[in-house]
Write a structure and sequence with these properties.
The complex is a heterodimer. Chain A has one domain. Chain A is globular and about 60 Å long. Chain A is mostly helical. Chain B is mostly helical. Chain B has 9 helices and no strands. The chains are: A mainly alpha, B mainly alpha. At the A-B interface, helix 1, helix 2, helix 5, helix 6 and helix 7 of A face helix 1, helix 2, helix 3, helix 6 and helix 7 of B.
Chain lengths: 191, 171
């Protein structure tokens, strides 16, 4: 993360200075950073809502039966958290939210899942195998219906805006499988 | 009415109903859980500021544009549509940014063109990598992400390849 951050900023500064527009740096600070507060403001309420609901989920045990059904899969992908009910529930909710593409809610549930996993993580500043797996699965995008893309296509005058659904699911499934395989490979190498 | 619009009402209604019949004090538990949510959301603000600054600077300074221009001759050798390059570079960085890029592609080439379809599939099958990592790991104070970003980028490449192959044979 450190290297990525430095690389992006370094390139940004070099280019803004050498193309004679150093004021871009201050513009980004003035206008774009402002947006991160807007983002948090919109996230606070959604996040509070879902963590509140998640607490009811945990207390009522509604996911316990589903967890039993999914146990073999969870045991394979998220081996080091499989005995923590709270963490498994949070992971299931997060992945489900991502599949249905409920935007901010998915982020909120993802953070909740990370907190539960961190709770049983042995080394607090290093990501556990399960944390890496959750991130990697989310990064490969597992959304079943790309609603925002369909809307964009309809707006752009497509005759058949939904004809990309099947290709998208095929491409997504392929990249997710590759991602899981590589994650498992690096997990064994113990990096 | 759309079927996907039904997901939330059914899910939320189901959770509350199940909690109610199992004797959970749903109101008190909700408020207590929500309190944790507020704390978590505020905690990730510094990470969001850090990543948004870096990404916006990178894109607006023209650095992103420059990389696209350097790569174009190389990628056109293998018959890769250069218009998609920008989307491929911006998508792992910024969801909002890629929104702008795909809108331009659809407006310029048409949503039903080969490039328009490729861009749509790619947009749906790729995800913002650095932002997700910053927010998720930031929320719990993890500084060593191990192989996460590397595998995220591998899966990005896999989704690009899958998109091109799928679009070639399905359209």
């Amino acid at each position: 993360m450190k290297k990525v951050w430095f690389g992006l900023i370094g390139l940004g500064i070099i280019f803004s200075v050498f193309t004679g527009r150093p004021e871009i740096v201050s513009n980004v600070i003035l206008y774009d950073i402002q947006k991160s507060v807007d983002l948090i403001l919109s996230l606070i309420s959604v996040m509070a809502f879902w963590t509140g609901l998640m607490r009811i989920v945990e207390k009522s045990g509604i996911l316990n039966k589903l967890s039993i059904v999914l146990k073999p899969l969870i045991g394979m992908l998220f081996k080091d958290i499989q005995y923590s009910t709270a963490a498994v529930n949070a992971v299931i909710m997060c992945i489900a939210a991502n599949m249905f593409g409920i935007g901010n809610s998915a982020t909120a549930l993802g953070i909740r899942a990370m907190e539960e996993m961190q709770y049983i993580n042995k080394n607090k500043n290093t990501a556990s195998n399960s944390m890496c797996m959750l991130l990697i699965i989310n990064m490969s995008s597992i959304q079943l219906l790309p609603l925002s893309v369909i809307k964009l296509r309809a707006d752009a005058g497509s005759l058949n805006p939904t004809d990309i659904i099947v290709p998208t699911i095929v491409a997504t499934a392929f990249s997710t499988i590759i991602a899981i395989l590589f994650a498992k490979y690096y997990e064994r190498k113990k990096i | 009415m759309n079927l996907s619009d039904l997901i939330l009402p059914v899910l939320i209604g189901g959770i509350l109903f199940y909690g109610m019949i199992n004797g959970v004090d749903i109101y008190a538990e909700f408020v207590e859980g929500a309190f944790d949510g507020v704390k978590s959301a505020v905690k990730i603000l510094p990470y969001i500021i850090a990543i948004i600054f870096a990404i916006n600077l990178f894109i607006q300074s023209g650095a992103e544009n420059f990389i696209v221009r350097i790569l174009t001759p190389i990628t056109s050798l293998v018959g890769f549509p250069p218009e998609l390059l920008s989307l491929i570079i911006v998508k792992p960085l910024s969801g909002g940014g890629s929104y702008g890029v795909i809108k331009t592609i659809l407006d310029n080439y048409g949503a039903d063109s080969y490039i328009g379809r490729c861009a749509s599939v790619l947009m749906g099958s790729a995800e913002t990598i650095f932002y997700t990592a910053a927010v998720y790991f930031g929320a719990v104070g993890i500084s060593n992400a191990r192989y996460t970003i590397k595998v995220g980028l591998i899966s990005h490449v896999a989704s690009i390849i899958a998109t091109l192959v799928v679009c070639k044979y399905m359209f």
